[in-house]
Amino acid sequence: MNEKTAKEAIAVVQAFMETFNAQDHERHAETLNYPHTRLANDRFFTFENAEAFIAGSKRHQAALQQEGWHHTTMASLDVVHSGKNKVHLALRNDRCHADGTVYHSFDTFWIATLTDGHWGIQFRSSFLHNS
Question: Is the pLDDT of residue 15 over 70?
């Protein structure tokens, strides 16, 4: 286990969650490495660059609001593997209403990478709604 890279990956996960909860799409895009791929609800989505991700993130904001989302918390975060330029992370995320009530929990596996001196999440696979 590479403790230094594990800490870097955890920091980028925390930044991801902070910017997601703020719905700060531009800063949120900075927490990723590209191309960024997500597997959720049995479908792969790949964003080639930050601009494409920002556009998708803005579109998704309305759906979050419709389901009553206020914020997401990490119920757990475990580093599974960590090497020089890549870290595997297992998370359990909780989607919450404004009063803090959890209305949806899901497991997700992320890969953080170091690319051109930048730590970012490059891959996410979530059991979002079909768990």
Answer: yes
